[in-house]
Design brief:
Number of strands: 0
Number of helices: 3
Largest sheet: none
Oligomer: single chain
Strand content: under 5%
Distance between the termini: 9 Å
Helix content: over 70%
Radius of gyration: 19 Å
């Protein structure tokens, strides 16, 4: 019989994965959103240079915390529900 996953392990693994993913990819989301709402025709490199010049490197992460928390919760629930339903639907051999 396959080893049963502990629900808190799945939740923590998913939340960690979601938070790391959001934190790493956030600057690209920031640049995309800035280009959509700035009203100026600027390329991504120009937006990054301007942001770093005016706000520093930390400026690329302004507003990041909300996305990290939301993504962590979403991924945590996804991992938890996936493992739950996988165990529920598995046969005696764990397949």
């Amino acid at each position: 019989m396959a080893q049963k996953e502990k629900p808190l392990h799945s939740l923590f693994a998913g939340a960690t994965a979601g938070a790391v993913e959001a934190f790493i990819t956030y600057p690209t989301e920031f640049v995309k959103t800035s280009s959509q709402f700035s009203g100026k025709k600027q390329g991504p490199i120009a937006i990054i240079k301007e942001t770093v010049k005016t706000k520093g490197f930390v400026g690329l992460y302004s507003g990041c915390s909300a996305l990290v928390v939301g993504n962590a919760l979403k991924a945590g629930v996804r991992f938890l529900s996936y493992d739950h339903f996988k165990q529920m639907l598995a046969d005696e051999q764990g397949k």
